[in-house]
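PT: before anyone asks, these are the final sequences, not the draft ones from last week. 399 residues across everything. Please model them as a single complex and drop the result in this thread when it's through.
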Amino acid sequence: MAEIDTSGGGHKKGPGVKKGKKLSTRVDLTPMVDLGFLLITFFVFTTTMAQSTAMNMNEPKDSDDPDKIMKVKNSGAMTILLGKQDQIYYYYGQLDPATLSEQWKTTDYKEVRQLIVDKKKSTPIDDLMYIIKSDKESTFKNAIDILDEMSISAIPPGHYAEVDITPAEEEMIRQTELANGIQ
Amino acid sequence: MPKVKLPRKSTNVDMTAMCDVAFLLLTFFILATKQKPAEVLAVQTPSSISAKAAPDKSILITLTADGRAFLTLGDETKKKEILENINLTKQMGLSPDEVNKWNKQEFIGLPLSQIKGYLNANNPIQPAQMPGIPIKDTLNNEMVDWIRSVSNVYAGSDQTALQQMLLVKGDNAVLYPLFKNIKQAFKKNEIYKFRIVTNGESIPIGSEVFNESIKS
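LR: through. Structure below.
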């Protein structure tokens, strides 16, 4: 570029002296700003999503003393059983061999929220109790998800509890799985 | 009447200042966010709506998808005291040097009977290959011993602080009985409160909690 004589007109410095054109040092920074903010947005979004949180877990004290065992009203109890393959089985009140097939119902994690809310609305809060029982083939995710459902539906603490599954219920799960073809 | 001549102003704005701000923020965020340490044990945690961040200083029990249990005693915990305590209570017969060596290990993932051999091995096995602390058998649940040592060391100090530190991090695919055994280990040592590490998720729109959060 040095060869180009740009000193057209005006005062000449002298023969042979070539004057470079004064180029502006200003660069258009708009694309750079765009890029900067794009990166900021990217980092902000990705970092908040990967954050792990801690969920509180309160376990009841085991007690063999019959006076301390909590009694639950039949009308207010809903038992939720967690099976394998993300299946949920549930029944209201106590399992009665005579009406077993009508009581025992199957659902999944999408629909259970509505069932929990419906039960909450139809039951006086003092009687309300969700009994959660996990089958030995259910997963850790299932157990946490159902506890999360309880907090999503704003069930007050003390109105839901994890209880050991009974052999009769395990048997019912096996039979339902067989009937529904769940491997 | 003379015409009013409006001077034509350039629409170009100086972007330098804005560019400075953008990159300053970018630098800040990059430096301020802590890089996640490379995970030796890959664990996919379940999600919950809990918004509380998991603490860094913690006593963490990790359950991997294939059902192994690991214990990680954080830097700011009384790690050495806990190791000394379990050495004493389980009569493992480790010398002070061996305990010091053990103190430098990040993950505890071996049955107590194999610890001595592991510490003296020339090529110790990598954490990812460890068999895990035995918890499958309810009669020989070594997690009970570990939690006992933890509660022994923290006896007399602030129990709520301890409860804040106890974390269980499990993979989605872990079967429930294993988690139950962990809960048993806590319960047997009269610890009824601990926390589960989860992935944060947003509160579903239209749920009860969502409606309450709008009201307040």
